[in-house]
Specification:
The complex is a heterodimer. Chain A is an alpha/beta fold. Chain A has 14 helices and 18 strands. Chain A folds into two domains: 64-228 and 310-483, Alkaline Phosphatase, subunit A, CATH 3.40.720.10; 232-309, no CATH class. In chain A, helix 1 (3-19) runs antiparallel to helix 2 (26-42), helix 9 (243-264) packs antiparallel against helix 10 and helix 12 (312-324) runs parallel beside helix 13. Chain B is α+β, with helices and mostly antiparallel strands. Among the domains of chain B are: 2-119, no CATH class; 217-353 and 657-724, no CATH class; 362-400 and 605-647, no CATH class; 408-595, Jelly Rolls; 935-1037, no CATH class. In chain B, the strands form seven sheets. In chain B, strands 3, 5, 6, 8, 12, 14 and 16 form a seven-stranded antiparallel beta sheet that branches. Chain B has a five-stranded antiparallel beta sheet with strand order 4-7-15-10-11, with no helix packed on it. Classes of the chains: A alpha/beta, B alpha+beta. Chains A and B meet through helix 1, helix 2, helix 7, strand 7 and helix 9 of A and helix 1, helix 5, helix 15, strand 21 and helix 32 of B.
Chain lengths: 485, 1038
């Protein structure tokens, strides 16, 4: 038997075998197999359209991801990790032994314990403990899994955000979303597979590198959709030019390019024609997507969104619309959680409460909305920051504002949806919330777990660069089985 | 579609070439390493099986079945498992299946006896010095223009392939002009070349282009990728930095064809060369292109270490094609580089300071010299004219004796800076502030003074090369404003409630900037306006200063208490102390601060009679500032000094003198876990087993014109037997003819630029895991030729572009595409989309907007609103460059690392976060949106339309010719002409009755539409221009 034929037959069978009942449309699967496998036989990773859907390593639980990153690092001790001991010891100096050899970003000398100004209560049938600052989250307590035992290696914003999203504190590695795009491709043919939405007064500290593709092909990088100006850069036709003119231009361009292809035979020309067509489709699909005016009032009531405005609420609603269209990875950033207590805007009783007000209702609405549409099962939602905050008051200016410094040893996040066990709290911290006490979840473990929910084995999702097979989790990471449904 | 065509092609090629009998190193070992060694190698032996030696493979694993039976693939478990249809049994269990050609190679290899030579990584082809190969004999000799062709043709003849015919001359001039200058040829240049039918026309064209100043811009851009050049610091703050003088140095280095060995020495160690010129110092910006993190609260050491890690990585990629960075945390998995060797390499780069260096033009340097001479002349005149001077001077000297009293250094006990500033202690007990520089700062330092009855404190502000402008302050010009200094006695180093405030009085200072007297620092008011500052004007910066503060009552600090000093610095603009040290005295009448500069003080120590005229002048130069009789002279001199020219300050490196660092191996690569110390050294695998005498003179060239590198070495007088020690040694080793990698790596990248892919397809990795070169002999020939040619880039460009290989057509027939989809055999020229900068440059050049100015500060083209606000913190001011500057080449666009210019980054311009030696060439819808709609491209379409209408004659025919020629270098063929003419007709019809739309489409600023033209026509032509600027051919180098 011809080895090529034999090989293709085997691979095809094997892939079908693996993908039975994964939730992917069978038709889509069949077509992608035809297109991709032939090419893969020649040289995987080269020359095929790298955004075409690819089969996962094993049956996935989730198809899409919505990651709500709270930039600046929300205080776990005031939101998700209840520590009555802090209120008991409020104002007392911590033992020097606790902070021996510790590196803090801003705290000087021997700091004092800071009790939380917010109360906690148990919610839902699961009885999850949630702060009074997050009343809407309390309503979905039974749908979420709270992880109280997160840990990271970094305690400055930009490196820590890079660490969460790229697995490395240095700039230049591919981001989580681009790894997923690389691993799975996208089923949506008129929108990018990895979309980024940013709200808050500032962008995240790590900049566009947080959704960069690093050494992966640039088609996998996150495309930022903006609520002001062009939703995607250069989406609008120049002034005075309407869609009909654009169509005529593209038709002429295509004819000329096609003739060039006949002449010189370079297949890259065919790809270019296709990309101009995709651009044309995006010109219609993106504005339609961004137009929230057709959403019913009840939906806006749920999210707190408002057509024509910008902000986290609108972005949460957009995130739902994006996953409905099949966009693989939607990344939200909302800035302003850096609660040092150096000014009122960073005080746990003022600035942080404002952040909660901006985000709590929309984030909870997103989970409710996905659930009622039957999308939560196949959509993984993650909420969290880049590190935690200290159990001690930073007291930088001694002017009475209260706040907490950066803290890498323990923080909390929540997850919901595809593949995640709902209504549980996983892991715990010590009495002061200083260190993880049980079931530590390192950032690399979280990344491995996210990939796992998508049917990707984190040790196998690799890209050869500089003579080494790189992966999101570097040489670390273990799937956190305890949070899986 | 292309992806339907490829699989058979690749398989056919592989089968055709390799079935004759597989070579272990070339065909088999890469499969075993890539697909088997992770689970069956030195680190892991799943199922007890190892596949990294023949003996182990013959033995097999736990199953007892041999993995390998020589001559019998069907009995070899290794083979059986890769072909089995059983999904549970098949190997490898993850990733893709072995490719058919890999399976075929394995079978052929086992059938032929499974030859498995013992491998020594030292013998890896890339680690063995290239030997000049004989030029092969070929059949079709008339095709061969130079040895390159012989190597290429020999392979083609072996494969039974023919080279492609030469490309048409129109294609050749566009290809050459784009390749050598990055710009498209003008229609006039094309006409001149087509008209020149005399012999040597092509070669003359090559010479013209190599002599073009735009050659340096094009080739500098490639090098700047490897140098990770950017205009900001990276990370959260991502502040602007000035390092464009380095970028300009690279451009000029290419234009003057600086030999690559000198090019290397200057960039890695220009400052260490004897008699280093300012240009050589500027060149060290290469290493300074690392990012650094100025975020609040960061540990400066963490990011300093990161920057050295980046430099090691960059040198590995840019010069050595070696992934040495892999050995940071553990010994390299595939290449013979140990973790110790990594830190030995690191040690070469670990003892530098990082100053900014003022760049002056020749005129500015002359002007400074002239000012100094004028001042000296005025002073000499005054000295001779003034009869009473000698007496007054002697009296002053008597009075100006050094203030008596002994000062003791106060070692700080504890210190911190707010907000988020980490002060570091130096060995002389001074404190230095690095990294985060928030504008205002408060430092709190505590002391446990060992002596009783302290009467005064002396604050020393000390310059340091790592501060802006050399310090001693952290503002742009090295200044600071000490708003308030308070001293307290404290019980606990952290408890402020029990502090007792001490009164400071009688402040004096070495110098007080007008309006900023030292008394303001103890006036009890903390404002952003008053305080002590020291700037004495641009000609006297970077000097140490001091201030003395007396205690109102002698101070004795009880042993259970501490002296706490608080330095409040509220002026803003980073006017804060960069490095400072405290002294105390117990003298009953404490001496005031010495107002005589240290240099003058040294002269005063000599008897008057022994002073040279220059020393006398120096004394007078200071003295006159204290003597009211010289008020007029001082005024005159001050106004001369006010003309002191200043230049931009660019980032450079200098050898660290104070507090030299000991490099230690970091366990797991973590700087917080230093272990044993190491000295600088080279990876052993790259050293000849017996160091030949040439290594000591590394870098010496083999041909005339060289030799100066070795001469430099002799001048530095280093002890060679003491082993390598500094960056200069590192640089010399890199360009030593004994270094097996450098010349190959550089030639491979040059080749890659012309042919789309290198002879080694992984230009960053020539290690044992890299695919072997497609034409090993050609690569070695190029490498040795490069050195023979005195490391001249232009000589090598000349050779390559004059070859018949380069001149081939890039058209590809379906059979050839199937046979060789990636053009590894070079039976045709490469055809690819130009790089990001080229996309911009072509549009600007075709439209006539392009400004061809070379060098200078980076420019700011228009960007959409809101792009920069993405940056963290205050949005960076992106003020669009005025006039023609916004139409300069892509190379000059300001590069902000965290928000790179969208029009370039979308076309795969690297982020500059780390060294890039191979750009991706992607093809995405966002690119289509950019060239269609970005204001820059639309403006180019409008300008091109105007140009067509104004310069293209009256007929559509003539205008279409011009339009096509400006974009693609050729007139349209009949079919294209017909298509575009039809489109033009549609557009005319559309705009005929839509004047408003026509004005908007035709004018960049609709309020000021272009005069003297028919706007309906220009609008229609704008649509045509836009179409043609978006043609695949326009964006492509054929």
């Amino acid at each position: 038997m011809n080895p090529t034929q034999e090989y293709l037959k085997l691979v095809t069978r094997r892939q079908f075998f693996r993908n039975c009942g994964t939730g992917l449309g069978t038709l889509a699967l069949a077509s992608l197999l035809n297109r991709n496998l032939l090419a893969a036989a020649a040289d995987p990773g080269a020359t095929t359209d790298p955004t075409l859907p690819r089969p996962p390593h094993f049956a996935p639980k989730a198809k899409n991801v919505i990651y709500l990153h709270m930039a600046g690092a929300p205080s776990q001790l005031d939101l998700l990790d209840h520590k009555p001991k802090l209120n008991e010891l409020d104002g007392q100096r911590v033992p020097e032994s606790l902070i021996q050899g510790e590196r803090f970003a801003f705290i000087k000398g021997v700091p004092r314990v800071l009790g939380s100004p917010h109360s906690f209560a148990r919610h839902g049938r699961s009885g999850q403990e949630i702060s009074s600052a997050l009343p809407h989250l309390a309503e979905i307590a039974d749908d979420i899994c709270i992880i109280r035992s997160m840990r990271t290696d970094q305690f400055n914003h930009a490196p820590a955000q890079l660490f969460v999203h790229t697995g490395s504190a240095r700039l230049g590695r591919p981001s989580l979303g681009s790894w997923v795009s690389y691993g799975l491709g996208t089923e949506c043919r008129d929108l990018p597979g990895f979309v980024v939405l940013v709200s808050g007064k500032n962008g995240p500290d790590g900049g566009t590198s947080l959704w960069g593709s690093g050494f992966l092909p640039t088609v996998h990088q996150g495309v930022q959709m903006r609520s002001k100006g062009d939703p995607v850069l250069f989406l609008s036709n120049p002034d005075g030019m309407d869609r009909a003119l654009r169509r005529q231009t593209l038709d002429t361009l295509e004819m000329l390019n096609r003739e060039a292809f006949q002449r010189v035979g370079d297949p890259e020309i065919v790809t270019r024609i296709a990309q101009f067509e995709m651009a044309y489709r995006m010109q219609a699909s993106v504005p339609e997507l961004m137009d929230l005016s057709r959403e019913p009032a009840s939906v806006h009531e749920l999210y707190g969104s408002e057509p024509g405005k910008s902000g986290f609420a609108n972005n949460c609603l957009l995130a739902r619309r994006l996953v409905e269209k099949g966009v693989r990875f939607v990344q939200l950033y909302h800035w302003g959680w850096d609660s040092h207590g150096d000014i009122k805007e960073n005080d746990l009783r003022y600035g942080m409460v404002d952040r909660c007000r901006e985000t709590d209702r929309p984030a909870a609405a997103l989970v409710k909305d996905l659930k009622q549409r039957g999308l939560l099962d196949q959509t993984l939602v993650i909420w969290g920051g880049e590190f935690g905050r200290t159990p001690m008051n930073e007291a930088r200016n001694k002017d009475g504002w209260i706040g907490r410094d950066h803290h890498p040893h323990a923080f909390s996040i929540w997850m919901a949806g595809g593949g995640i066990k709902p209504g549980i709290t996983y892991g715990s911290t010590d009495e002061l919330g200083y260190f993880v006490a049980e079931n530590p979840v390192h950032v690399h473990d979280l990344q491995a777990t996210i990939l796992h929910c998508l049917g990707l084995e984190h040790t196998k999702l690799t890209y050869r660069f500089q003579g080494r097979d790189f992966r999101l989790t570097d040489v670390h990471g273990e799937v956190v089985k305890g949070v899986l449904a | 579609m292309k992806f339907l065509k490829l699989p058979l092609a690749a398989a056919t090629l592989a089968l055709a070439t390799d079935l004759a009998g597989a070579d272990f190193a070339r065909d088999i070992e890469p499969i075993l390493i890539k697909r088997c060694s992770e689970c069956h190698g030195p680190d892991q032996q799943k199922a007890g099986l190892r596949l990294d030696s023949r003996a182990a493979a013959l033995k097999g694993g736990k199953s007892g079945k041999p993995a390998l039976v020589a001559g019998r693939p069907d009995e070899s478990e290794l083979f059986r498992r890769v072909i089995t249809p059983d999904p549970d049994d098949v190997m490898p269990p993850k990733g893709y299946r072995l490719k058919p050609d890999e399976i075929a190679r394995l079978r052929a290899w086992i059938e032929a006896g499974a030859e498995w030579p013992e491998t020594d990584p030292r013998k890896h082809w890339a680690f063995v010095k290239p030997v000049r190969p004989a030029v092969p004999v070929v059949k079709r000799t008339q095709w061969v223009r130079n040895p390159i062709d012989a190597f290429v043709l020999a392979r083609l003849e072996r494969e039974g392939l023919e080279p492609s015919p030469p490309a048409p001359r129109r294609t050749l001039i566009r290809r050459l002009t784009l390749d050598l200058t990055g710009l498209p040829p003008t229609p006039a240049e094309v006409d001149a070349f087509l008209a020149d039918r005399s012999p040597g026309a092509y070669e003359r064209l090559v010479e013209r282009l190599l002599a073009s100043p735009h050659y340096g811009e094009k080739w500098a851009r490639h090098w700047l990728d490897a140098a990770r050049y950017a205009d900001t610091n990276g990370y959260e703050k991502d502040q602007p930095r000035t390092i464009w003088p380095y970028r300009d140095w690279v451009i000029h280095a290419f234009n003057r064809d600086l030999p690559f060995d000198r090019f290397t020495l200057d960039q890695l160690a220009g400052d260490l060369l004897p008699g280093a010129t300012p240009e050589q110092v500027i060149a060290t910006g290469f290493l300074r292109n690392s990012m650094f993190n100025e975020e609040g609260g960061v540990d400066p050491e963490q990011f300093r270490v990161d920057s050295i890690v980046d430099r090691v990585d960059t040198i590995g990629k840019a010069f050595l094609g070696l992934t040495i960075a892999c050995a940071q945390c553990h010994s390299h998995k595939y290449d013979p580089i140990s973790q110790r060797e990594y830190y030995q390499f690191f040690a070469f780069l670990n003892n530098d300071d990082e100053p900014d260096f003022e760049v002056l033009t020749a005129e500015q340097r002359a002007k400074r010299q002239a000012i100094l001479e004028q001042v000296a002349t005025l002073e000499r005149e005054a000295m001779t004219r003034d009869a009473g001077l000698a007496d007054r001077l002697a009296r002053w000297e008597r009075d100006a004796t050094e203030p008596a009293g002994e000062w003791f250094v106060l070692p700080p006990d504890d210190w911190h800076g707010q907000p988020g500033i980490k002060l570091e202690r130096m060995s002389d007990h001074s404190l230095i502030a690095l990294a985060h520089n928030p504008g205002e700062a408060t430092y709190v330092v505590t002391f446990r003074p060992p002596l009783a009855h302290l009467t005064a404190l002396k604050l020393e502000a000390i310059p340091h090369p790592n501060q802006r402008a050399g310090g001693p302050g952290r503002s742009e010009n090295g200044n600071f404003v000490l708003s308030e200094l308070t001293a307290t006695l404290a019980t606990h180093r952290d408890d402020e409630s029990l502090e007792h405030r001490l009164t400071l009085t009688n402040a004096s200072a070495s110098f007080e900037q007008p309006g900023f007297p030292v008394t303001a620092a103890i006036d009890g008011t903390v404002t952003n306006r008053t305080g002590w500052a020291i700037d004495a004007g641009p000609h006297r910066r970077g000097q140490p200063h001091q201030a003395v503060f007396q205690f109102a009552q002698p101070l004795t600090v009880p042993t259970n208490l501490v002296l706490r000093l608080k330095f409040e610095q509220k002026y803003g603009g980073a006017h804060v102390l960069g490095r400072f040290r405290l002294h105390a005295t117990t003298a009953a009448s404490p001496p005031p601060a010495d107002r005589v500069p240290p240099a003058v003080r040294a002269i005063l120590a000599k008897p008057v009679a022994e002073r040279t005229p220059a020393e006398q002048l120096a004394v007078f130069s200071h003295y006159r500032t204290t003597d009211p009789q010289f008020a007029e002279l001082n005024r005159q001199i001050d106004s001369l000094l006010a003309q002191w020219p200043t230049g931009p300050r660019t980032l450079v490196l200098t050898n660290r003198v104070e507090d030299r660092r000991v490099t230690r191996i970091f366990a797991r690569g973590d700087f917080r876990q230093p272990t044993e110390p190491v000295a600088p050294g080279f990876p052993a695998v790259l050293l000849p087993s017996e160091p030949p005498p040439t290594l000591a003179r590394a870098g010496q060239r083999e041909v005339a014109g060289g030799g100066d590198v070795a001469a430099d070495h002799a001048e530095t007088g280093r002890e060679d037997h003491a082993g390598p020690g500094n960056r200069l040694d590192l640089a010399r080793w890199i360009v030593s003819p004994e270094n097996p990698l450098t010349a190959r790596v550089i030639m491979n990248r040059v080749w890659q630029t012309y042919f789309g892919e290198g002879l080694v397809t992984t230009p960053e990795d020539f290690g044992t895991r890299a695919e072997p070169p497609s034409h090993p002999e050609l690569l070695d020939w190029l490498a040795t030729e490069f050195m023979h040619q005195g490391w001249s880039f232009k000589a090598m460009h000349r050779l390559i572009v004059n070859s018949a290989t380069y001149r081939q057509s890039s058209r590809v027939s379906p059979p050839l595409l199937e046979r060789d989809p990636y053009n590894r055999l070079l039976a045709r020229a490469a055809r690819f989309r130009v790089e990001a900068e080229g996309v911009r440059d072509i549009a600007l050049a075709a439209s006539g907007l392009l400004s061809r100015k070379i060098g200078g500060p980076s420019i700011f083209p228009p960007i959409p609103d809101g792009v920069m606000s993405l940056a963290y913190g205050a949005p960076m001011e992106w003020k669009v460059s005025p006039g023609d500057d916004k139409y300069r080449r892509g190379l000059y666009v300001f590069w902000k690392r965290t928000v790179p210019y969208p029009g370039l980054s979308v076309f795969d311009a690297p982020t500059a976060d780390f060294a890039c030696v191979r750009r991706v060439k992607s093809n995405t819808p966002l690119q289509a949106l950019t060239t269609l709609n970005d204001a820059v491209f639309h403006e180019a379409a409008q300008a091109l339309a105007l140009r067509i209408v104004r310069e293209g004659g009256d007929s559509d025919h003539a205008r279409l010719n011009l339009a096509f020629r400006l974009c693609t270098g050729r007139p349209p063929d009949a079919v294209e002409r017909e298509r575009v003419r039809r489109f033009l007709t549609e557009q005319r019809a559309y705009f005929e009755n839509r004047t408003a739309a026509a004005v908007r489409v035709a004018s960049t600023d609709p309020a000021q539409p272009p005069p003297d033209v028919n706007l309906h026509a220009v609008a229609a032509w704008t649509m045509v221009a836009r179409t043609l600027l978006n043609l695949d051919e326009t964006l492509t180098r054929e």
